[in-house]
Amino acid sequence: MSSKIKVSLFNHLIDAERQLLDPEIRQSERALDALLDDEFIEIAANGTTFNKYQVLTRLPTEVVPQFYNQHFKGRMLSDDVVQLSYQAAYRRSARSEFNYSLRMSLWRQTNEQWKMVFHQGTPCAPFSISMDDD
C-alpha cells in the first residue's frame, strides 16, 4: 500500500521533522525522546549509523548547525507509516560552506503519536536554497 497522505498529517510531520532541527529541541534529551521511536535508526551522510540512545546522548552536546530544508514530499506506506523526503542544506557557521543532502525519514504512529523510526541523509550536488516554506 502506498497512497496519498492527508494534508493535515503531511504538515504535522513536516513540523515534527523541523522540530528535530530546532536548537532548543536538539539540546533537550526529553524533547528528542518524544519525537524519536524507541527503535529509531539513523544513517548519517557519512555512512555512520546511530540508534536512539546514541542520538539522545550526541545531539545535546553538538554545536547546532544552520539548517535549511525544502521540497518536502510525503506518502503513506501503510496506515501507520509515512515516508517523508526533502532536500537539506546545513553549515556549522555563517562562514563555512554548505553541505547538501537528500533526506528521507520514516514516521510511525504508535498509541496515537507519530515518532520518527528511521532517518537517512545522502550527500548530493548543491541546489538553490529557497527561503520559502514548502
Automatic annotation (TrEMBL):
<protein>
    <submittedName>
        <fullName>DUF4440 domain-containing protein</fullName>
    </submittedName>
</protein>
<dbReference type="InterPro" id="IPR032710">
    <property type="entry name" value="NTF2-like_dom_sf"/>
</dbReference>
<dbReference type="Pfam" id="PF14534">
    <property type="entry name" value="DUF4440"/>
</dbReference>
<dbReference type="InterPro" id="IPR027843">
    <property type="entry name" value="DUF4440"/>
</dbReference>
<feature type="domain" description="DUF4440">
    <location>
        <begin position="14"/>
        <end position="116"/>
    </location>
</feature>
